[in-house]
UniProtKB/TrEMBL annotation, chain A:
It is found in: Membrane. Residues 72-194, 266-394 form the Cytochrome c assembly protein domain. It is a multi-pass membrane protein. The lineage of its organism: Bacteria, Bacillati, Bacillota, Bacilli, Bacillales. The chain crosses the membrane at residues 6-28, 40-66, 78-97, 104-124, 136-162, 174-197, 262-280, 303-329, 341-357, 369-393. Pfam families: Cytochrom_C_asm. It comes from the Bacteria. Keywords: Cytochrome c-type biogenesis, Membrane, Transmembrane, Transmembrane helix. This is Cytochrome c-type biogenesis protein CcsB.
From TrEMBL, chain B:
This is Cytochrome c biogenesis protein. The chain crosses the membrane at residues 72-90, 132-154, 223-245, 472-494. Keywords: Cytochrome c-type biogenesis, Membrane, Transmembrane, Transmembrane helix. InterPro entries: Cyt_c_bgen_Ccs1/CcsB/ResB, ResB-like_domain. The lineage of its organism: Bacteria, Bacillati, Bacillota, Bacilli, Bacillales. Residues 70-430, 449-525 form the ResB-like domain. It is a multi-pass membrane protein. Its main location: membrane. It is found in: Membrane.
Length: 397, 545
């Protein structure tokens, strides 16, 4: 067995272990809480989580050996590492606060991220010259650890909101909370639909021209084309033709295909969400809320703030300072307003504002929880949208 | 100055909310921190007298108060955040892709993004981060940083220095963590004091009034990190001066030597060789990825020698050069010498350096040479005389030939795709003939030429694009970043915890405050009162929502 296959087996193992651990964290809700002895379910759950984390460490090391460079060089590797960082940050916070409910939310979110990552090309790719530096792993690992810790504040913020938002009547807050939950489901929808069509081996090819130039580009759809390339021509004859063309301004390379993927993700997310609503017969938030009765909201608020307080310096170090040092060495300037750099700055500004708002009265509790959700949205935007939509120097995926 | 004397005897400066010594709320000032409407005291700056909350008469006061507001600071940050994000909607001017129809922003944005692109350009968002208003925004954040910090640091420092262990009972009861215990033995008191010391608290005892404190230095974290940020902003400002910051670019051809721009003619660079390597597509490890994504470059490298002019140079004479450095410049491996740094930044493959042509008879299938000539493209001549008596005149020369609507033109001045219009004058004095010769092209103007020109040989070379940098502001950025990291760690990873004990006859009042991590201070107190009958503190926090 070679390192690469050990590596993928271990990643798979980690995923399954996180799944099992989630069930055990779920079981802690039912446990009678006695202050002296922590329930056995919680102990099993955290042990399985640590086992899963170790499995993922093995994945990381074996892949590093197989590729001869730190496996953080493309979207699959980076997102997977981010998921691992999230589990790591959760384990740290767990040992400070012993908060079982955190596992019930943090692990599924880590799993969604890892599953999502696996939908991107997983082949070992060689490093382009600009990435050939030790700063690759110094910068990327610190940045994603920082973002992972900051994401814990999202996890606790989300729990806080589900716990606290009044579900007896429909309101703006309940709607927004459902939107947040729905967004997470969209990621699941994307993974499900991609796996389904990959298994069926679907492929439809289009020819189209970009940016008024004369060269024709071929793009390969792995999902049936709802939106085809603008003025594109289907060249694999037996496949369905697009329902409509992508708008004219979407003229970037593969823009239409990405747009099509987004449509599919949202649609499958809607179907999943609809199914869940049909089964629950109430808002998802309202369905989870009773499970969270025992959790103390002020503790959630504190963990959320603490996660930002711990994560912010790590993020600054990795995402701004190490990033600048490397950019100075590789690209001859430490700051160049590349979209990825700008969004790191936006993230930094956001959490700086968050920390300053915590100084004032009135910004603790629910408002703070909403902010934590917003911060996570910015982190995910920088991770995904900047790579997939706003092309720049960092679009390695 | 209207100083306020507290009942404990301490004289507080005007605007004090909580007596610096005993913490008793000072009547008439409670609205300042909003204590009048709440049960708990606002402990943010220990109730010290801040200038911004005390004076509001002169224009200076008003400006000071404006910038010292955290609310204004947050608004400035949020505005900068939104502005920065807007700048990424479309690429900034410097990132207009090379394949664009035109790299002129007035054409590019409208051409590629239509009406929204045009609006984006007209609003100046194509150069957002260099715009006056963006820089002003950052400057305002800088001013806010300075004023906020001074407004809070000075009084807070004083208040924490003056604070006494003996605190007013109402100060304790209005803390978030508070308890009253009616009977406490002196044995228990000793126990808690020794436990606090064991937990590395600094304990002050003033006639039975106890103050246990740790991590006060974390309170200075925010001010330290703000100093770091100010230094970074100053460094950014200094970059606008050419002495502190030099940014230039030079193209050097293989085998050539050229002066390094920005060095006042002092330094020369010689390009020995440019190397471009790609990954082996048969490499087992990367095979799959390369098959899917195409060729991947492995290395861009220029082997250079840097020379420095030595001694006096006499105008018109070749300068005397002395070797300073010889190195391989690669990505992630720049060359440094005498404060300058050279980076591998660009390349151009296969520029022609020389071409050799031969003349032969059009209808000779053997194409036997009737003489040849060599054009040195670094210094092309207007005409070439061949030994066999032929004379070839260069009528037109297109270094980088392309057809623009049927009309031959040159895209650049560099010999990347040279093409010529020649006139051949045969030795026998007959009519001269015109022909067009380029790479893969050989056109006979009339179709009746007796002689034909063919490319016999050519030489090519690569060109390296090298960035030249000298940046004296870097050390300042590094110092600023270090101070920032130090301050932010100091403020975030440590907490300022205080526990007060106030004796009341038989019993005690106990209260605690921390600037963050309440969970931690509660744990400290639990440990402290273990094996005693002292009551655990209640958390009186009022969640605002």
């Amino acid at each position: 067995m070679d390192f690469l296959s050990i590596s993928s087996t271990m990643l798979y193992t980690a995923f399954i272990l996180y799944l099992i651990a989630t069930f055990f964290f779920g079981a802690t809700i039912k446990e009678k809480k006695s202050d002296k002895s922590k329930g056995i379910a919680g102990k099993i759950a955290i042990s399985i989580t640590i086992a899963g984390f170790l499995a993922q460490i093995v994945y990381f090391i074996t892949r590093w050996i197989a590729s001869a460079h730190a496996p953080v060089s493309n979207l699959f590797e980076f997102m997977t590492f981010f998921g691992m960082g999230l589990v790591f940050a959760f384990i740290i916070i767990y040992f400070i606060y012993k908060l079982n409910i955190l596992g019930l939310f943090a692990l599924p979110i880590a799993m969604i991220i890892i599953a999502y990552a696996s939908m991107f090309p997983t082949e070992i790719a060689p490093l382009v010259p600009s990435l050939q530096s030790h700063w690759l792993y110094i910068h990327v690992t610190t940045v994603s650890l920082g973002e992972a810790i900051l994401s814990i504040s999202f996890v606790t913020g989300l729990i806080y909101l589900i716990r606290q938002v009044d579900q007896s009547v429909r309101s703006k807050r309940t709607t927004w909370l459902e939107i947040v939950l729905f967004s997470l489901i969209v990621f699941i929808g994307f993974s499900v639909i991609t796996v389904a069509f990959n298994l069926s081996g679907y492929s439809a090819q289009f020819e189209y021209t970009v940016n008024n130039s004369n060269n024709t580009i071929t793009t390969d759809y792995h999902l049936p084309p709802i939106a085809g390339p603008n003025d594109g021509e289907l060249i694999t004859g037996d496949k369905m033709s697009p329902l409509f063309d992508a708008p004219e301004w979407m003229r970037g390379v593969d823009a239409a295909r990405k747009f099509n993927t987004i449509i599919w993700s949202v649609l499958s997310g809607l179907v999943l969400y609809g199914l869940i609503r049909l089964i629950l017969r109430k808002r998802i938030g309202a369905a989870i809320q009773p499970l969270l009765k025992k959790v103390k909201p002020d503790l959630l608020d504190e963990v959320s703030y603490r996660a930002v307080a711990i994560g912010f310096p790590v993020f600054t170090l990795g995402g701004i300072i190490f990033a600048s040092i490397w950019a100075q060495i590789a690209w001859d300037r430490f700051w160049g307003w590349d979209p990825k750099e700008v969004w790191a700055l936006v993230t930094w500004f956001f959490y700086a504002a968050f920390l300053h708002l915590r100084l004032s009265r009135g910004w603790h509790g629910e408002k703070s929880a909403w902010l934590a959700v917003g911060g996570f949205a910015i982190i995910m935007f920088n991770l995904l949208a900047v790579n997939l939509i706003l092309a720049g120097l960092h679009s390695y995926a | 100055m209207k100083n306020i004397k507290c009942e404990c005897g301490h004289v507080n400066p005007e605007g004090t909310v909580l007596c610096e010594a005993c913490g008793k709320p000072i009547e008439g000032n409670q609205h300042i921190d909003g204590n009048d409407k709440k049960k708990l005291l606002n402990m943010r700056y220990d109730g010290s007298a801040r200038r911004s909350q005390t004076y509001n008469k002169s224009i200076v006061d008003k400006i000071w108060n404006f910038f010292s507001s955290v609310k204004i600071g947050v608004w400035l940050i949020v505005t900068a955040l939104i502005a920065s994000a807007i700048g990424t909607i479309y690429p900034q001017e410097m990132y207009i892709p090379a394949d664009a129809v035109s790299r002129d922003p007035s054409i590019f944005y409208e051409d590629r993004y239509g009406i929204t692109g045009q609006i984006y350009y007209q609003l100046g968002f194509h150069n957002l981060y260099g715009s006056w208003w963006y820089m002003l925004l950052i400057a305002l954040i800088g001013i806010s940083l300075v004023i906020c910090s001074i407004d809070r640091f000075v009084p807070l420092y004083k208040a924490l220095k003056i604070q006494k262990a003996r605190r007013h009972a109402s100060f304790l009861s209005r803390q978030r963590l508070y308890s009253e215990t009616e009977h406490v033995t002196s044995e228990e008191k000793n126990k808690i004091v020794s436990s606090l010391k064991k937990q590395r608290y600094k304990v002050t005892d003033e006639n039975g009034h106890i103050l246990a404190e740790k991590g006060r230095f974390s309170r200075w974290g925010p001010y330290v990190n703000h100093i770091g940020l100010i230094i970074v902003l100053i460094a950014a400002l200094l970059r606008f001066t050419p002495f502190m910051y030099l940014d230039d670019y030079v193209w050097v051809r293989e085998g050539e030597q050229t002066v390094i721009p920005g060095t006042k003619g002092e330094y020369y660079i010689k390009n020995k060789d440019f190397i471009l390597e790609t990954y082996d597509e048969n490499d087992e490890r990367f095979q799959k990825a390369i098959k899917k994504e195409g060729m991947v470059p492995k290395n861009f490298q220029t082997n250079v020698i840097v020379y420095k002019e030595s001694g006096e140079t006499i105008p018109g004479e070749e300068p005397e050069l002395e070797e300073v450095a010889e190195d391989e410049i690669r990505m992630n491996h720049p060359l440094k010498f005498d404060g300058y740094t050279l980076y591998q930044a660009g390349y151009q493959l296969n520029e022609f350096t020389s071409m050799t042509f031969k003349v032969h008879e059009t209808d000779d299938p053997e194409e036997t040479s009737l003489g040849n000539f060599k054009i040195d493209l670094t210094s092309p001549k207007p005409e070439y005389k061949l030994d066999s008596g032929f004379r070839v005149v260069v009528d037109q020369y297109y270094p980088d030939y392309y057809l623009d609507d049927g009309e031959p033109k040159s895209e650049t001045d560099y010999p990347r795709n040279p093409a010529y219009v020649f006139t051949v004058h045969p030795p026998d004095g007959s009519e001269p003939e015109m022909s067009f010769v380029g790479i893969g092209k050989n056109v006979d103007a009339t179709g009746e030429n007796d002689y034909k020109l063919g490319i016999q040989d050519f030489k090519m070379r690569d060109v390296s694009g090298i960035t030249v940098r000298r940046d004296y502001t870097l050390p300042l950025f590094i110092v600023g970043a270090l101070i920032f990291m130090f301050g932010v760690t100091q403020g975030m990873y440590w907490q300022h915890r205080r526990i007060w004990i106030h004796p009341t006859g038989e019993g005690i009042l106990m209260a605690a405050h921390t600037n963050k991590n309440w969970f931690g201070v509660k744990k400290d107190i639990e440990r402290m009162i273990a094996d005693t009958d002292i009551k655990m503190v209640d958390d009186q926090q009022e969640l605002d929502d």
